[in-house]
Recover the amino acids of this structure.
């Protein structure tokens, strides 16, 4: 496991010399403590859990990353995404690694509601765990990118927070930034036609109002002035989530005068970028988080 962490750190942390990266990884266990499987919400008999990666030094508050895994809302797990957390840990952030109800437990939009509840749990428990709620960043890959966008851009009036068991569902929540890795921005587009995707069809299932639910769960419909800064990273040859989703979101955010940036990975598929592309993406993320005052 340590060897895997070392290789990933050397790959994704070009801001540090190789030896510094190796030294940091070797002492990772001394730098962070992990609290796994904390239940943040219970709905439909399902306990949704998250893992906490907290700095050992000091009491905080720390800039905090909320990571949401991908898998088309039908697969994936928080444990399978652990290596994606390493670059953010090296930036000195606390990390909250979130799981949510997949389609086999609850159809759409349960995953959206769960991730909103995770954000409310973080606010409600900020003092206990040292989260800096003025420096929250939400990120994820693919379906996780979609959920990062809905978590970071939805107002409470969208109505997804009323299952939450932590905090006051009438309180408006904010994040400092969203980092969207090739996330879905228009769920309706994936239900039929040339961009139809089986994972989206499975997530909506046989809901009688599936298009209405898909629209309510689409980040593109929540674009408005005053949103947090949004950085999107997307390959222009992605066969799983159309690159046009990122382009349309970028144009809509520009029109609404929301600070945002689209990093296009030339020839990039659905993740699996090469070393140079990954290094460039994390350079952009680090610079973006510095610009927004998180780091």
């Amino acid at each position: 496991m340590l060897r895997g962490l070392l290789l990933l750190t050397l790959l994704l942390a070009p801001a540090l010399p190789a030896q510094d990266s190796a030294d940091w990884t070797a002492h990772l266990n001394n730098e962070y403590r992990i609290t796994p499987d904390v239940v943040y919400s219970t709905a439909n008999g399902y306990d949704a859990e998250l893992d906490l990666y907290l700095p050992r030094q000091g009491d905080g508050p720390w800039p905090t990353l909320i990571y949401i895994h991908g898998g088309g809302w039908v697969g994936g797990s928080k444990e399978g995404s652990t290596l994606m957390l390493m670059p953010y840990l090296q930036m000195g952030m606390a990390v909250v690694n979130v799981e949510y109800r997949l389609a086999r437990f609850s159809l759409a939009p349960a995953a959206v509601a769960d991730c909103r509840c995770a954000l409310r749990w973080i606010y409600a428990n900020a003092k206990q765990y040292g989260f800096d709620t003025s420096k929250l960043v939400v990120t994820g890959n693919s379906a996780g990118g979609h959920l990062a966008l809905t978590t970071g851009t939805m107002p409470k009036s969208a109505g997804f927070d009323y299952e939450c068991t932590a905090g006051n569902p009438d309180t408006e929540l904010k994040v400092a930034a969203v980092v969207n890795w090739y996330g879905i921005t228009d769920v309706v587009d994936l239900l039929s036609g040339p961009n139809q995707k089986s994972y989206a069809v499975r997530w909506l299932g046989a809901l009688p109002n599936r298009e209405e639910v898909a629209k309510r769960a689409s980040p593109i419909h929540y674009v408005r002035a005053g949103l947090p800064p949004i950085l999107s990273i997307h390959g222009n040859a992605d066969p799983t989530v159309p690159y046009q989703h990122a382009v349309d979101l970028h144009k809509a955010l520009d029109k609404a005068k929301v600070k945002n940036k689209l990093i296009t990975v030339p020839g990039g598929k659905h993740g699996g970028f090469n070393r140079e592309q990954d290094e460039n993406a994390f350079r952009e993320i680090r610079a973006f988080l510095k610009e927004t005052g998180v780091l």
